[in-house]
Design brief:
- The protein has 7 helices and 2 strands.
- With 156 residues, it is mostly helical.
- It has one domain.
- It has a two-stranded antiparallel ribbon with strand order 1-2.
- Helix 1 packs across helix 2 and helix 3 crosses helix 5.
Length: 156
């Protein structure tokens, strides 16, 4: 599953309202795929008989991590913001940068690990929640990674 999450316009920092909406999208996606039978690998969505279908198809019964976000997001912009938060967290955890990382993570980890990384992305979402934000020049790395690192330092 290769995915391209954003273009230059999507890299703009999100405001508080957009961030709140993105966190809500991640919560809804987690709720959607939390039941074990509602999670899928290798396809964005599958019907109850295992056939790959579109994420909004009425026959869809289970979704991958990326497909769940796409399914519940009310707008493309909200979807992108949610994916940026999620991707930032997965990149920080795995120390890898790749636009395909969300799909790769979903397809190479267990259901419990996928739910855990989604829950952690929700609880650890940094204030700026954007890749390559304008603070990168100051920090010399992803601003979100700096926020993640700072939050982890104070945790027991």
């Amino acid at each position: 599953m290769t995915e391209f999450l954003y273009n230059v316009e999507d890299r703009k920092p999100m405001n508080a309202e957009e961030r709140t909406l993105a966190i809500g999208v991640l919560r809804d996606a987690r709720d959607l795929i939390s039941p074990p039978g509602c999670w899928s690998q290798v396809a964005y969505a599958r019907s109850s008989d295992g056939v790959s279908v579109g994420v909004s198809d009425p026959r869809a019964a289970c979704w991958c991590l990326r497909g769940a976000v796409q399914r519940v997001a009310p707008t493309r912009r909200a979807e992108i913001h949610a994916l940026v938060i999620l991707l930032t967290h997965i990149e920080f955890v795995s120390r890898k940068k790749s636009d395909a990382q969300i799909g790769l993570y979903n397809d190479t980890h267990s259901h419990l690990e996928v739910i855990a990384v989604l829950s952690r992305a929700i609880s650890d979402a940094p204030p700026c929640a954007v890749l390559d934000c304008e603070n990168d020049a100051v920090h010399g790395q992803s601003c979100c990674a700096v926020h993640h690192a700072a939050r982890r330092v104070v945790r027991p």
